[in-house]
Amino acid sequence: MKLKLFFVPKIDGNLRKVSLSVGIGEYLIASTPSSLSTWALGSCISVILYDPFKKVGALSHCMLPEPPSPSESDNKYVSIALPNMVHDLERLGINRLNLHAAVIGGANIFGFSGKFDIGRRNVSKAIKILNEYKIPIDILDVGGNKGRNVVFLLSTGEIFVSYTTKNVFRRSLYGRAFNYRSTTP
Q1: For residues 147 and 97, what is the distance between their CA atoms, to the nearest angstrom?
Q2: 3-state class of 65 per DSSP?
Q3: Minimum mean pLDDT among 23-32, 113-122, 125-134, 160-169: which range?
Q4: Domains (range + CATH), the chain
Q5: Active site residues
Q6: pTM of full prediction above 0.85
Q7: CB 136 within 8 A of CB 101
Q8: Can you tell me the distance from the alpha carbon of 127 to that of 138, in angstroms, rounded to the nearest whole number?
Q9: What distance lies between CA 154 and its chain's CA centroid?
């Protein structure tokens, strides 16, 4: 049974209230009837791993593809979080061969290219690791110039994604606010 993706204009408020929220640099593992969520994915990505037979899954919110030095072990890095998720699921008795994956996010909000396109690099790193683990990717909702909010229902394997608007509000280092409007359609 594959994961299923649904695009919604807005995440239902009740669903948002009952889901376990995953912050930046975190991942959570849960089982049915729980739901997992993460919010405001820009260049960050969420990797979802799911065993449809046991209805157990994990959701991450990763910020960068890999750490600047090998001694770092923070789950904000795709190269750290994804192996940790697989290992923890296996420790709970989940067979890696039963896992299905989704990769969501990796937007290029500010139009950077090359090594500065963090979203693309995050997605590439996740795909590489999932392929190494031989975990099939059922859903790949990546790129673009809009952020995403995600809710994952473990009871059904359904993933709900809502896109943020083109206008991205940011705060400067000095506390002054400014608006940034993407120049791409």
Answers
A1: 31
A2: coil
A3: 160-169
A4: 4-181 (3.30.1330.200)
A5: 44
A6: yes
A7: yes
A8: 11
A9: 15
